[in-house]
Amino acid sequence: MDHFLYRDGALFAEDVPISEIAAAVGTPFYVYSTATLLRHFKLFDDALNGMDHLVCYAMKAASNQAILKTLAQAGAGMDVVSGGEYLRAKAAGVPGEKIVFSGVGKTADEIRTALAGGIRQFNVESEPEMEVINAVALDLGVIAPITVRVNPDVDAKTHAKIATGKSENKFGIPIARASEVYAHAATLPGLDVIGIDVHIGSQLTELAPFELAYTKVAELTEQLRAEGHNIRRLDLGGGLGIPYTRANDAPPLPVEYGALIQKTLGHLGCEIEIEPGRLIAGNAGLMVSKVIYVKSGEGRDFLILDGAMNDLIRPAMYEAHHDIVAVTEPAPGVEQRPYDIVGPVCETGDTFAKQRNMPPLAAGDLVAFRSAGAYGAVMASEYNTRPLIPEVLVHEDQFAVIRERPSFDEIINRDTIPEWL
Ligand SMILES: *Cc1c(COP(=O)(O)O)cnc(C)c1O
Fold it and tell me: Which of 56, 67, 78, 79 to mutate to test the pocket of ligand 1 (most atoms within 8 A of CB)?
């Protein structure tokens, strides 16, 4: 559920008409709903009720400072995957003890930044990385809390580019080697080995892969405890999918996911951490764009928008579907026609949808891409020297620009000319 609904024939974000935001900031832009962000966070938080837990928002999904602050004020921790994200989380007021550092190749500099600023734990992905964390911790005279990310070799049944839990993926250490790696970790004086981490992929639409993975984590917990390790925290990653198609998608609900965690891991008495990103931000954001031209082609018609693949890359990158709706609600029973919906970038990949049924639309009309809040703005680029589009946050009847559209001068002046030119 989200807070982008039609009222009297116009699409609203909470209590603000989308057309009003468009008039104020220009198109294209991203808009997020505070109420939806908070609702999704709370669904996870409530789903783990009764267990000692922390929901760490995977901020790579949408990392604007205002979004982080909104979630942090509700009690969220953060899952970061780079030194830059760590600094972003700190800047938004998240204390170090609520920041988890994930990611497959943390550099010594990034590790130093996090250890100096305070960190809840590092999720270690390899033995060489473990050695570097140990060395940096000893150098700083601190102890680094760590978990080891294990790769449980389960098929997450999701898009190949976002599956991470099969043995051929680059993530974590094979679960079969865990015993050896934990024994190694225990010999390193700069580390405190506190738990186990697992993350098998993103946009999972069934619980079965989670169940397989978490069952393996439960067995591993008992085994490592028997081997003398004080396993007291389990980080279960993110990955729960969202409905991208209103009509027929029904991924599991956070409450069902929480019940699965209780069932598979509840008896172990560990503190539970989860790292949802997409499910918190995805349906809390729209990308709003304007029709520039309606063009009739050979046997097909094109809606050419002012938004493009550089603004929202998911269709080009993951063959992702986004529902695209008219900001002015179509009259009931109006005849829909198929369009190819495209952006202006000089690549055929700049196609958002093919032969998508849409109500009659004309140049100047606004459309909204639903479910664009996660992996939208954060993956945008300035390809074709198209400025990064603004982000707007709505809270009830207020809205604020939370990232401005840069001017062309700002973009051009980022380049510098060598003195020989
Ligand atoms: C990307 C990622 C997440 C978040 O995944 P979602 O599908 O957005 O919930 C969580 N943990 C790790 C380690 C990740 O890489």
Answer: 79
Contacts 24+ apart (CB under 8 A), 133-137: 133/106, 133/190, 133/191, 134/188, 134/189, 134/190, 134/191, 135/108, 135/190, 136/108, 136/111, 136/112, 136/190, 137/190, 137/191
pLDDT digits (tens, 9 = 90+) for 338-356: 999 999 999 989 999 999 9
Sequence-distant (≥ 6) Cβ neighbours of residue 374 within 8 angstroms: 61, 62, 242, 277, 278, 280, 281, 282, 285
Render 170-183 in DSSP notation, one character per residue: SSSEEGGGHHHHHH
Q: Is the CB of 45 under 6 A from ligand 1?
A: no
CA distance 205 to 213: 15
Instruction: Report the CATH number of the 103-274 domain.
Output: 3.20.20.10
28 ligand 1 Cβ < 6 A: no
Q: Which CATH architecture has domain 4-31+282-412?
A: Beta Barrel (2.40)
Instruction: Indicate the length of the chain as a whole number.
Output: 421
- pLDDT tens-place string over residues 246-294: 766 789 999 999 999 999 999 999 999 999 999 999 999 999 999 999 9
Active site members = 346
- Residue 199: helix, strand or coil by DSSP? coil
Phi, psi (degrees; rounded to nearest 5) at 207:
-85, -20
The widest CA-to-CA distance across the chain, in whole angstroms, is 70
**Rounded to whole angstroms, what are the CA distances from 34 to 73, 99, 268, 285?**
12, 22, 35, 10
SS3 (DSSP) at 274: strand
How does DSSP assign 367-413, residue by residue?
EEESS-SSSSGGG---GGGPPPPPEEEEETTEEEEEEPPPPHHHHHH
Per domain, the residue ranges of the chain are: 4-31+282-412, 103-274
Domain 103-274 in the same topology as domain 4-31+282-412: no
For 132, phi and psi rounded to 5 degrees? -70, -40
pLDDT tens-digit map of 95-145: 999 999 999 999 999 999 999 999 999 999 999 999 999 999 999 999 999
What residue's CA is closest to ligand 1, atom 13? 102
Q: Is 61 in the pocket of ligand 1 (CB under 6 A)?
A: yes
Measured CA to CA, the distance from residue 281 to residue 174 in angstroms comes to: 30
Tokens (6 digits) for 175 = 């679960």
C-alpha 101 to ligand 1 mean position (Å): 12
User: Distance from the CA of 57 to the center of ligand 1, in angstroms?
Assistant: 9
Task: Identify the pLDDT of residue 329.
Answer: 97
The reported pTM is 0.96
